[in-house]
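so i finally got all the pieces together for this one. its two components total, 622 residues if u count the protein bits. some of the lines might not be protein, just check the labels. i wanna see the whole assembly predicted at once instead of chain by chain like last time, that was a mess tbh
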Amino acid sequence: MDGPDTSRRFRAARESEWRQLEHILTQAESRSVRALSDEDLLALPILYRGALSSLSVARETSLDLELVTYLEGLCARAYFFVYGVRTSAGSRIGEFFARDWPGAVRGLWRETLVSLLITAIGVTAGYLLVSADTAWYASFVPDGLAGGRDFSATTESLRETLYGGRDQPLALFATVLFMNNSQVCMLSFALGFAFGVPTMMLLIHNGAMLGAFMALFISRGLGMEMGGWLIIHGSTEFFAIVLSGAAGFRIGWSVVFPGEQTRLAAATAAGRSAGIAMAGVVIMMIVAGLLEGLGRQMITSDAARYAIGLGMLLFWCAYFYLPRRTA
Amino acid sequence: MVGVPRHRIVEEAAKRRSLVTPEGVDLSLRLADVGQRVTAFAADLLLMVAALFLISLLAAAGATAIGMAGAQAVAIVWLLCAFLLRNFYFIIMEMGPRAATYGKRMAGLRVVARSGERLTADRVIARNMMREIEFYLPMSFLSLDVSQGTADALTALTGLGWTGIFLLFPLFNKDRMRVGDLLAGTWVVSAPRRKLSVELSPEAWEGAPEYRFTNAQLDVYGVFELQTLEQVLRDERVEAIATVAATIRGKIGHAHQIGDHDRAFLTAYYDAARARMERGLLFGKRRADKYDKPA
């Protein structure tokens, strides 16, 4: 009996190439493509095709399970590496800002209008209810967020919170608020999967909270000042929340009404375009956080606050909705 | 009787998903099973908690160093770190070249686009933001339950039941997809980094006879049994080798010889059977397991 000679010879002849490929992949994965030398880069596709052909041969002629499993793993790793990176990170990011993000947001225009409308209903309801009966305030604004700003506070202390100096706990409060809002954004996007109903509730609740705040400050004649305090970052932040609600609705809608596609395909398509929009929403939340944390601390003039806030709103609208040449 | 190994082969095939490369080779990726997914996620959670603990220690040290005046800055840094960790650890790790968090790497997993395309950032973001309803929301209902009264407990229980659907979603589809996977068009496959170990070859043993087998003896088993034998030999567990050697001897009617040695016998049988079956493969004959028609 002479043993499985053919498959042993096959393995002995190719093994060094597989090991070389494995070595290159390990290097590239642990550091980056830049860590590879020119020779390695040139060798990679050749070694990859060699490994693929080895896999095909091994599957048909070898019964060595270990060998076949090893080659499958190696080929999969090489495949994801060879076909994984088509463009450089720089041009991908450029593409995202130039086309993908505004395109995704434009594609959500219907949902955005619905989301905006629902938020507006929430604001109106919150404002009217709290104006009629201040007891509603506590049910809209949780204690942690109010931070002493409720109907028992004096007008003077309320004014103080709007123009608070740098060393007050306002900076901490701003951070908490930013994180809270980002979490609301992500939650309203994710909840879209539950047919969009919880997203709607979340948007109404968020709007009602704003309405309640407005009712409090307007009742003390601080409406104008409060508007400036809010709009400097709020135009960006509420836009982001409305967009994330819209992204949630898109997913919910496609799950309930998939149209011609299968439900799974429709959900996947919606998830991806909504995912692009959400990547943008995260960026908007960071911008809003910066405006809130830094801008609002340093700029205490109402006019400047309004100018920045409305300017940002104009900028976002122009960026998303202005028609542009298609590539 | 017939159903047992067949069942195993079918089960293994059900875990495979075909991915044909542009070169025309099917990589047949193996889906990660639920156990691996849970292990990976638990490891990631532990890692995040440990990182948060470390950040807290640093923050505490920082606060005592700066004094109460700087406490607010420290608190802000701490909050931001916690926020970034919770929301971006998964996203950033999965956008890297290995498409896996540390937990997934440990369990030998990676995220792959279902279509076999490149894994893009929007897919990674979509699949990880869904964690909000899959994990954090059920957890928030759980913590609500502990701290409030009975009326709220009922709300929490209802909420938990509702969000439990999202949490347990991977158990109810054959592709083991989370809600996030479903929406992002991804799935998680098992792609461990393997080292190629030495090939099994007949091992001589001092005093052991030279084993010879007839074709009838070699034809008793099929590929499945051969590869199981390979695993037994590679695992090198003495009791398993003794049991398997006894079974095979009985099955093929191999008489006990003077100086018989289990491992030497098994490697010799493996070698001879593999040679015979591989020769069969060259002629297009493949016998899946011992219940299959003899080649």
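Chain B has a mean pLDDT of 84.
The CA atoms of residues 4 and 10 of chain B lie 10 Å apart.
anyway lmk what u think
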